[in-house]
Amino acid sequence: MATTETSADAEQHATLRVVVIAAAAALGGFLFGFDTAVINGAVDAVRGAFALNAGEIGFTVSCALLGSAAGAWYAGSLADRFGRVRTMQVAALFLAISALGSGLAFGVWDLIFWRLVGGIGVGVASVIAPTYIAEVSPARVRGRLGSMQQLAIVLGIFVALLSDAWLAGAAGGAADKLAFGLAAWRWMFLVAVIPALIYGGLVLGVPESPRHLVAKGRLAEAKDVLRQVLGMSSDSALDKKVGDIAHSLKMEYRPRLRDLRGPTAGLLPVVWVGILLSVFQQFVGINVIFYYSSTLWHSVGFSEADSFTITVATSVVNVLVTLVAIALVDKIGRKPLLVVGSAGMAVTLGVMAWCFSQATGTGADLVLPHSIGPVALVAANAYVVFFGLSWGPMVWVLLGEMFPNRIRAIALAVAASAQWLANFVISSTFPALAQIGLTFAYGLYAAFALISLFFVLSAVRETKGMELEEMPG
């Protein structure tokens, strides 16, 4: 049997078609990044427009993440029932509607509602894209193709922050008016309609996942897709691959939460690993950088224009290091990169905490000493480098491949929901933590980065080069 598996696996190779298909699916990650980061440039303007306090603006910024948790929770069951492609199309629709509603919101509760709608679309896309990419990719390049999700996310963040900066600059400020009498911050939301429509159009042309087709008994279609995406020409190899998928999916036709039950605090150990990977990815505070960085740098003495420039530069760094991670993931492996990332983030976050301990003043009058400002900027960008090399792309790669086939959809939904809830906790509490002190906030994130290092060393299993059908439960 081992010889047959090796022969069938040897026929697999990455075709141009599978790269294009993975890129189209990963565009959901672009919308994920864009929709969650676009609020960065609008924070101060929204706070002023609706007269919000720290708690209210924290909830307004982070409320979309509650929608994302809900979307991630139900995405797996929707994908199993209606297919991966149809579910991606629904996500695109939610994101387009949300962009329109948020840009035209007449009050803070209206804005919160539309951001919740967009959050649902983001949550669905966050689950389906890595699942779909993992299911159509050859094992030997699955890490690189799976990392396209994170590359799309960071590109989405970059484009969102760049458009925020351009719109604010064109208007003279985020609160000032642009075309049709609408404030620049409203256009920051409205422009998200364009990528949502593009995403919806592109996923119309991608094939359904072969694993979903096998689960539904559509074996001939599954073989045709495998032939296209894996470049397999031998009928015997295709039959063997379909047989392997069918065997691994015996228990996956109608996955339920009860399938995740296990001896470790009520869940299977692999499920807890997925949940904790998701939680630590957020508890190191990365989205504080991408949701609040313009406000943060403005609060410590930089002008609004300079704050936007710094934020865009940080997002460029994030894109570049994600490209490096894609080049390394299938050579070095997932676990070594996570270890390096955790150690680097612990150090750089510690440096940031120290820098802000040197600040003078309080609240909006907080100022970093002239010699400390550059150190804080370097530390913040070094932190993004370590995150972008490791916990950014590696968590999504692992979540897409680490679970056995019979529970993959529901386990990924649980892990992704945990990620969004953790993101909500960190993002909604940052304004209040910042009022206590930025030293405390970044010191807390540094502690979580250190804990994540020990977690990876003790609990995370390497999956480099393994077939999805080989993943143990």
TrEMBL record:
Return the Pfam families for the record: Sugar_tr
Catalysed reaction(s)? D-xylose(in) + H(+)(in) = D-xylose(out) + H(+)(out)
- Which segments cross the bilayer? 14-34, 54-75, 87-106, 112-133, 153-175, 187-206, 266-290, 310-329, 336-356, 376-399, 411-434, 440-460
Please list the GO terms describing molecular function: transmembrane transporter activity
Q: Name one GO cellular component term.
A: plasma membrane
All residue ranges annotated as the Major facilitator superfamily (MFS) profile domain in the record: 21-464
Regarding protein family, the annotation reads: Belongs to the major facilitator superfamily. Sugar transporter (TC 2.A.1.1) family.
Would you tell me the protein name for this molecule? D-xylose-proton symporter
Q: Where in the cell is it found?
A: Cell membrane
Which UniProt key words apply to this protein?
A: Cell membrane, Membrane, Sugar transport, Transmembrane, Transmembrane helix, Transport
How does the record say this protein sits in the membrane? Multi-pass membrane protein
